[in-house]
Design brief:
The chain is α/β, with parallel strands linked by helices. The chain has a single domain, classed as Carbamate kinase (3-Layer(aba) Sandwich). The chain has 9 helices and 11 strands. Strands 4-3-5-2-1-6-10-11-9 form a 9-stranded mixed β-sheet, with helices on both faces. It is globular, with a radius of gyration of 17 Å. It starts with a strand and ends with a strand. The relative contact order is 0.16.
Length: 237
Amino acid sequence: MAYRRVLLKLSGEALMGGQGYGIDPAIVKSIANDVAEVVAGGTQLAIVVGGGNIFRGLKGSAAGMERATADYVGMLATVMNAITLQDALERVGVPTRVQTAIDMQELAEPYIRRRAIRHLEKGRVVVFGAGCGNPFFTTDTAAALRAAEINADVVFKATKVDGVYDRDPAHYPDAIRYATLTFQDVLSGELAVMDSTAIALCKDNAIPILVFDLFGPGNIGKAVAGEAIGTSITPAG
């Protein structure tokens, strides 16, 4: 394996598959199977999951909700996704712990950095819910923050596209996919990878990011093995 400890960022939208809302059980099962193979190979894996399949704070704010309130609702949505992932992972034999940035003792452990690291060392998957626990921060930023806190070797951003493009490939068939980028390329080009706070956190802590297609067969395992998939974002070109 190319990486000892990985932070996997999953978007909430990825969990809903072709549905317009909610969670597609087939997608969650597929992710669980891929994660099980990676963990069986000895890689320590933590996951940050978004909540956009259920509620997105920015949309709630645009619809008239106070932004902080909307973001808190979005954090609760991420916890719903986190415990769903936990259930799917444990069904395939992967010991899993959910830790939340907002205290929910009946559902999950509170986020404690040293405890999270200890779980990883024991071969458990740790799913981080409720983002950073603060409004005005995205789950991308939460992923970058948790990656730095647990000393992850890399952040995997698993998405619906197979990398980073110079423009939206869904609207421009001639869009060009980048194989490699630097953090400065992403920030100066305002490329739609992660929000600028998340990119800056990874840049400051020299944590590379790999963006790839979540739905490619075995892509999580390929990424862990260091195969050339997706777009790699590194401190230096």
